[in-house]
Specification:
Length: 556
């Protein structure tokens, strides 16, 4: 079945068919002012995917033209995220390397009578700009001569003006219905040290001037951005055309807008996350409850699951928000066959098999994934003392509880039929041990005589068990209250993190690397926390539980 093409592919197909475009060149241009999130993943995978699909090129460029907000820490993390998602690029590009060429372009505009130095104050410029319903007024400096403008602009560059004393503006149309076209600012004076160019510049280009030029310099054909830039497209084209890079809006580079990815009841805004990090509500930008790419990686999401998620979201022109459950669906689907299935006892209860020989341990061969034979088998120890999960035993079970309770027989997964005989409690009423007997004839968990058991539970051999911390997550946001409260703070779900300090996991996990993923049978998918886990103190994150009510729109 041929997949339907999205509207961006339709545009590119047409450009190729009509002979306008020989090679598709796309880019991902993050501002290094924060960590990337799931929305950026969409942009990365979209741009990279198109370059790959059309046999073109993908550029990874830091849009580092605005020194105040930028930080070297972020360039490292952004690069790591892009590489982790599998987007390949030749070299890392920096917009700041083009400052000289941008300056040249500004000089050209001045010489062509298309830009002027304006000495109005910031407030005056705002006042003169007009409103959505009223046209703006021309600046009194609009008719400065080319010579005067060249001289003043050079002085701006040479540091002869105070910050904010004047700006370079495009001479377009103060009455344009599009406010972006009312003589937008191209350059400002600002004494700031830039991480790349140091103190070489005291004037910096504005985004709307710099960005189209960066695309033009690199020969970008399709410059894909989000919808809020739709109103900036005429200015994008004006810059590219008037600086001599194309003749008409249909030429290249060409800006195309698509809808941002939003997740329902999820915090994505940088400033909100920053606040949560600073207040200590979350454990850094990679706290597994967040949806920064670093957090998703730490939580245990795979690049494949994110690719599939982005694909399912599709590309469109209208903003809509996607349910987090779809992301969970994608990781479950990805790990279902890939992850080893091991046994872990959360909120453990000790089980003693009274008729099992003391001091004996046997090794049971257990498949690593019943649905994927390729993952092979492993040897799991079984002996007299075991742990089971706290919710697999009940003193007084309700109806339809088929797990362990006094008098009931169950299957210990891949091991034996085991019957509960009695239990012990401490003074506070906590169960301290459950006493059982096993049927040696039921080895492998098979019925020896046709008698049936209704429950199958997992277990961990006590002596060899790995004691581990397990972290369970729920949405960081209190879904009843919504994401933000009236003061603009996040409504944090008090149950978003549950730490189970003493859990027991079968010994096969001991050799695993940080980041490795498992299914804990009957419990969920987990990974080893890359930040806090060590051989001495293992820490597991629950990526996602096993079941959900989420259905793809195409599912019956
Ligand atoms: P935010 O405001 O969410 O922090 P941003 O737009 O400031 O993000 P940039 O570094 O400027 O972040 O963005 C880099 C690229 O990622 C841009 O092309 C932008 O359009 C795209 N992008 C940002 N957020 C989303 C999103 N939610 N969905 C899809 N693409 C996005
Ligand atoms: Mg931005």
């Amino acid at each position: 079945m041929e997949e339907s093409r999205n509207f961006i592919e339709n545009i590119i197909d047409k450009d190729i068919k009509e002979g306008r475009c020989k090679k598709v060149i796309t880019r991902f241009p993050p501002e290094p002012n924060g960590y990337l999130h799931i929305g950026h993943a969409k942009s990365i995978l979209l741009n990279y995917g198109l370059a790959e699909e059309y046999g073109g090129e993908f550029h990874f460029r830091f849009d580092d033209t605005n020194p105040t907000k930028e930080d070297v820490e972020f360039t490292e993390s952004i690069r790591k995220d892009v590489e982790w998602l599998g987007a390949k690029f030749d070299s890392v590009l920096y917009a700041s390397n083009y400052f000289d060429r941008m300056y040249e372009c500004a000089v050209k505009l001045i010489k062509d009578g298309k830009a002027y130095v304006c000495s109005l104050s910031a407030d005056e410029i705002r006042e003169y700009r007009g409103t959505l319903t009223e046209p703006g007024k021309n600046s009194p400096y609009r008719e400065r001569s080319v010579e005067e403008n060249l001289e003043l602009f050079e002085k701006m560059k040479n540091g002869e003006f105070e910050d904010g004393a004047c700006v370079l503006r495009a001479k377009i149309d103060m009455a344009s219905p599009n406010i972006n076209m009312r003589d937008p600012i191209l350059y400002r004076v600002a004494r700031m040290t830039h991480h790349n160019t140091g103190d070489k510049w005291c004037i910096y280009p504005m985004y709307d001037f710099a960005h189209p030029l960066e695309d033009a310099f690199e020969g970008i054909t399709h410059s894909i951005c989000t919808l809020e830039f739709e109103d900036h497209r005429p200015l994008y084209d004006w810059v590219v055309i008037n600086c001599g890079f194309k003749d008409e809006p249909e030429g290249f580079p060409k800006q195309i807008e698509f809808a941002k990815l939003y997740l329902t009841n999820v915090v994505t805004g940088k400033r909100y996350i920053k606040k949560l990090v600073e207040e200590g509500t979350v454990d850094g930008w990679d706290d597994p409850r967040l949806v920064s790419i670093a957090a998703l990686r730490r939580r245990g999401f795979t690049p494949e699951s994110i690719k599939n998620f982005v694909k399912l979201c599709g590309i469109s022109k209208s903003n809509a928000s996607v349910d987090y459950a779809m992301l969970e669906y994608c990781i479950r689907e990805d790990l279902k066959f890939k992850a080893k299935r091991v046994m872990a006892a959360l909120n453990p209860i000790k089980v003693v098999i009274d008729n099992y020989p003391e001091g004996q341990t046997e090794m049971l061969e257990i498949p690593n994934n019943l649905e994927n034979e390729e993952l092979g088998t492993r040897q799991v120890p079984f002996s007299r003392e075991l742990y089971i999960s706290g919710d697999d035993f009940m003193e007084e079970p309700p109806k339809k509880y088929f797990r362990l309770f006094p008098g009931n027989e169950v299957r210990f997964m891949n091991a034996y039929f085991v019957k509960c005989e009695s239990f012990e409690k401490d003074e506070d009423g906590n169960i301290t041990a459950v006493h059982c007997t096993y049927d040696p004839a039921s080895k492998g968990g098979n019925s020896p005589d046709g008698r049936k058991v209704k429950g199958t539970i997992h277990w961990v051999n006590a002596e060899t068990a790995v004691k581990a911390e397990v972290r369970l997550y729920e949405n960081l946001v209190d879904e009843e209250l919504g994401v933000y409260n009236e003061e603009g703070n996040v409504n944090v779900n008090p149950n978003s993190l549950t730490i189970l300090k003493e859990c027991y996991v079968e010994p096969s996990v001991k050799e695993a690397e940080n980041g490795e993923r498992f299914q804990f049978v009957r419990t969920g998918f987990f990974n080893i926390d890359s930040k806090d886990s060590s051989r001495e103190h293992m820490v597991f994150n629950r990526i996602v539980s096993l079941k959900s009510s989420f259905k793809l729109p195409t599912d019956k």
